[in-house]
Amino acid sequence: MLESCRPAAPRVKVYESGSSIASRYHGPVDLLRHLRFFDAVAEHRHFGHAAAALGMTQPPVSQGVQRLEQELGQRLFFRDARGVRLTEAGGALLPVARRLLRDAEQLMTLAHRWRPSGQVRLGLADDLEDKIPALLTRLAERDVDCVPTVSGTVELVEGVREDELDIAVVRHPAVVDGLAAGPVHTLATYLAWDDDRPRDAELPPMREVPPVVVPPRRHHPAAHDQLIDALRRLGHSGAVIEAGTLIERQAWASAGHGVRLVLDDESGRPIPDLPPLRVRVVTPLPPDRRADVDHETLIRRLEAALS
């Protein structure tokens, strides 16, 4: 008996009601990852070049595009000896894919930058060291609700420019083009040995003082170099130990490997002609400021806390 020549019914992929492309993946991140592959291959018209632009090898890109085609149920590219070309479906879906990628990037940006209304994103130069707790306490006493970020001046200035910070206290001099900068505050500095030597003990000559433990040069190259020059003029070797955090700097000094620059005359010893710490307040220009933050009042309170 002859078999029926009637064509077999097409295979239909059935999804539950309410399902989405994202839910059929292991998670939305996988979908976005494969959409980035789709976008890169469409831009470069070559899987190898797309992989290079993405900073990865070609096989994961090829496999990712194939999986995306399977999930969408559409062929996105023609692959032949002439290279890679978008199919009609690929050309229709590409603008939607790129819009999804833009929306995802905007979502992540907003999520990272979002803060409760009125909460201030405050940057503080790590050179302020032991003065930071007292500074934050004074602001809290004046009802300033802030989320502090302690970092190097270079990073803080960039944070204000990129709308990641509302205001920052940075070391002077710094390149603050395109920002509003307040007056320079000069804070006296002292040398602290962080050991048990009596306060009235005679200080050794500067040539015998061990290396000075300071924040990394990348935090503020100009001020770092100026400090070394000033130490050499005082007879010091100019040797420094760069440590990224306050606790690291305290540890180096406590272990007897160096001395610290501090802003407290009770824990440090005055050294004639020791360069002061100069800082200033920077904010975005008025048109770029958050509407829910009273920058003028904030600036006044921060300036008063530094005085």
TrEMBL record:
PROSITE patterns: HTH_LYSR. The keyword Transcription regulation applies. Residues 30-87 form the HTH lysR-type domain. InterPro entries: LysR_HTH_N, WH-like_DNA-bd_sf, WH_DNA-bd_sf. GO terms for molecular function: DNA binding; DNA-binding transcription factor activity. Keywords: DNA-binding, Transcription, Transcription regulation. SUPFAM superfamilies: Periplasmic binding protein-like II, Winged helix' DNA-binding domain. GO terms for cellular component: protein-DNA complex. Belongs to the LysR transcriptional regulatory family. This is LysR family transcriptional regulator. It comes from Aeromicrobium phragmitis.
